Amino acid sequence: MVNQAVVERDVPLSSRSAVKVFAKQDKIGKKEMPSEDLGEQGSTVRTEAYCRFVPTTGPEESCLSVLKRFQADVKLPCVIVCDHANRPLGLLMRDTFYRRLAGRFAADLFYERPALMFAEKSPLITEITTSPRQLIDAALNREAAVFYDSLILTEQGEFKGVMTVQDLMLMSRELQREADQIREKIVRESHAKVLEIDQSVKEVSATSERSLRQTEEMSGLATAGRAELEAVQASFNRVLKMTKSQEEQVAALLGHASSISSIAASIRELADQSGLLAMNASIEAAHAGEHGRGFAVVASEIRKLALQTKMFSDDIGTTLDIVSGLVKQTADASSLTTIEMQHSHDRVNSADHTFQMLVESVRTVEARGRDMFQTAGNAAKQTEIVMQELEQLSSKK
């Protein structure tokens, strides 16, 4: 047997920490493990629950006496050799002890000699307060020659009991059962949390879908509104052109009315001159006597005609003044209408620009809403995958 002076190894105790365990060899070569608690407060499995008592013997007790102990109790796995202070000195395993005494001359050679000579001087010794996981890990790291030996449990250095490989397996099974229960609990809690997350994700997905549909509808309305506004803008452009054309026509009409007024004034002057000429002709006809009587009649008719022409000319002038006033009013109203139409046209252009920005903003919101809807859908799929995996873990016993 090769005894190590110091055995150093890393023992993972939990997901939170890992500690180093040192096994030291005392003066007679026993490997003892530290008794510090390794942080398994959450476990209900305790080393002392698997500790079994076996008889002890002193360092001077003979091999024959120990052999009789084993023969008296066929289920006894081992005997512990202790000093006067009940501190373990060595380990006598049944099978190993039998093999040592199985020789032809073993009875003559060894029966009266101390059994300590056949004891394992470097058994695995640990305090009973050692955590089960650390204890199992230390037992699994033993050499093959002593792998199936019992391990010795002490309490403040004094012998307390032993644990066989069977005890270690039972304790390991209980730890595994406890770990499975914890795992199942965690899986159930995780499944419940994932269900809540899945519900939230589905609600977000449904909300995103409704928001996307509303945004699409808003985008359609904004696009239709802008199209209608563009049609109004085109109509305003046509009306503005027609108003400007009417303003020009009224201005031309006002100019023509002024020309007609000038012509009527000229006719009135001609009528006055014709009246003067007819009066002069009448005077000359009177001077001519009988010979000018016919001429006087013509002059009188011309004078009447001149008076009628003047009257018609005055009526035309009056009517033209009225028409000119109305045309001027129409021109002023047309000018004001043109100005107001221009302002309305500017407002429509501004509204069209605003609508264009609104349409672009709505399309941006629509794109983001679609991205959010897709992201929510992907999250829902991932959540379903996680739920399926949790259900598979939960179904594994």
Automatic annotation (TrEMBL):
For the keyword Coiled coil, the answer is yes
All residue ranges annotated as the Methyl-accepting transducer domain in the record? 187-394
> What PROSITE patterns does the database record attribute to this sequence?
CHEMOTAXIS_TRANSDUC_2
Its keywords, alphabetically, are: Coiled coil, Transducer
- What does UniProt give as GO cellular component? membrane
Q: Protein name, please? A: Chemotaxis protein
Superkingdom of origin: Bacteria
Q: Which GO terms describe its biological process?
A: signal transduction
The answer, when asked if Coiled coil is one of the entry's keywords, is yes
Q: What stretch or stretches form a coiled coil here?
A: 165-192
One protein family per Pfam: MCPsignal
